[in-house]
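Researcher: Quick test of sequence recovery. Tokens follow.
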């Protein structure tokens, strides 16, 4: 869910990268002067949670859910990852690697750093390096996906530079789970659903999007984005309830697909000429070549958006804001577009708000809720339920009110089964000893 802005000159040049957090409740942008974090809790108002100008030319910024932990990489030091507790204004640690960092992925259990030909997996509760995956196929874009469900921290990355093979890696057991022959051509996009039970993929052609079961790797769905031209898929994302899958590209159209299968228990339709022809057409596909029949059986978009721009880098998110399903589109020219999505009938999504990301944002740091584990919910249930805020004492992971004291180390016996909780001043991010490895230079500094 991350993109780098490539447009030269003008306001777009000031927006160097942008990414949604794991549950699409927050937006982070990197600029030539630093980075900014926004809360996505309202349609009408874009609340700026934090702004930092300490590190210029940021090209990667990733926030862990709605916590105070943020990871930043700058063009000034492209081989160094900096981990901050932004609300306390302190640096938790920094790591230097053997080559430029291309992407970073987070969940409550793991932190993954992707280089062009290697991947590093850290334990997020103490930032220790757990595994180095060396000699991966050349991955110039840093393409990888990490399940946000830390109970099954699956990692997906290209298994080949020439074909669409996916390597599925278990980030908990630190073993390869399987390989999936997803496409004929090289991969362009990967995305897990919120539970880590489905994986979507697209190739560089961008015409077909496939969804596989995890960890088995069986193909569940196949969607056709278009047939007229090849496109560069820039964003691929599930809704939190896994009912919808959104794909955007370098064209002006955003496609939303609905993940459903027609059951065989449908009532028998009355005999009509059109019904008869439909059955004949369906039967004929059984005698056609697999490539042709497969194309006929591919599902089309459930809903679409026609952007007023084309050729700009963008990322999308499907989120529930103020109890209604929304489509969010962030573009490299520094704007956030919010659309209404009709979960019943689909069709053309309606633009309801446009925000500028480079203007002076309103600071609403205290209004943002602590993170909570993403619970799969249908949109109907989301609309029907009352808005409640769970107690912070029941929510695992980093919290907004947590802090870091200098030089403190978490004793081994205080490690919980889950990640480190920063719910009070009695728990602190760890300080790691400085050591040097073969492929990574551990330069860990705790403020």
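Model:
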């Amino acid at each position: 869910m991350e993109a780098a802005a490539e447009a030269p000159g003008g306001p777009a040049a000031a927006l160097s990268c942008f990414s949604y957090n794991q549950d699409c409740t927050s937006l982070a942008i990197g600029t030539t002067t630093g980075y900014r974090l926004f809360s996505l809790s309202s349609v009408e108002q874009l609340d700026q949670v934090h702004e930092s100008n300490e590190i210029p030319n940021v090209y990667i910024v990733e926030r862990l859910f709605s916590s105070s932990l943020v990871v930043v990489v700058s063009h000034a030091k492209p081989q160094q990852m900096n981990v901050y507790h932004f609300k306390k204004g302190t640096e938790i640690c920094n790591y230097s690697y053997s080559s430029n960092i291309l992407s970073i992925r987070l969940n409550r259990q793991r932190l993954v750093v992707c280089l062009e030909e290697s991947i590093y997996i850290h334990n997020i509760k103490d930032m220790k390096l757990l595994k180095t995956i060396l000699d991966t196929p050349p991955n110039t874009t840093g393409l990888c996906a990490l399940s946000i469900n830390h109970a099954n921290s699956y990692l997906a990355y290209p298994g080949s530079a020439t074909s669409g093979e996916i390597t599925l890696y278990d980030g908990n057991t630190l073993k390869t789970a399987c390989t999936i022959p997803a496409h004929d051509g090289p991969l362009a996009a990967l995305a897990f659903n919120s539970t880590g039970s489905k994986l979507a993929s697209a190739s560089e052609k961008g015409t077909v999007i496939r969804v596989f079961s995890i960890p088995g790797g069986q193909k569940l769905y196949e969607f056709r984005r278009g047939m007229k031209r090849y496109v560069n898929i820039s964003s691929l994302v599930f809704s939190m309830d896994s009912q919808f899958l959104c794909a955007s590209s370098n064209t002006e159209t955003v496609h939303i697909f609905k993940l459903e299968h027609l059951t065989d228990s449908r009532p028998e339709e009355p005999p009509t000429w059109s019904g008869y022809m439909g059955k004949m057409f369906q039967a004929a596909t059984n005698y056609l070549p697999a490539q042709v029949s497969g194309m006929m059986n591919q599902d089309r978009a459930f809903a679409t958006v026609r952007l007023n721009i084309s050729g700009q880098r963008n990322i999308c998110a499907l989120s529930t804001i103020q109890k209604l399903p929304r489509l969010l589109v962030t573009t490299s020219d520094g704007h956030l577009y919010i659309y209404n999505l009709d979960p019943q009938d689909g069709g053309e999504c309606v633009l309801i708000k446009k925000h500028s990301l480079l203007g002076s944002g309103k600071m609403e740091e205290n209004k943002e809720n602590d993170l909570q584990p993403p619970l799969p919910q249908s949109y109907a249930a989301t609309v029907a339920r009352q808005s409640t805020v769970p107690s912070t004492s029941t929510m695992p992971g980093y919290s907004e009110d947590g802090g870091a004291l200098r030089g403190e180390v978490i004793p081994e016996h205080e490690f919980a089964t889950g990640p480190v909780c920063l719910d009070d001043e009695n728990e602190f991010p760890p300080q790691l000893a400085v050591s040097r490895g073969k492929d990574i230079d551990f330069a860990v500094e705790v403020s």
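Residues 6-13, 262-270, 290-297, 364-447 have pLDDT under 50 and may be disordered.
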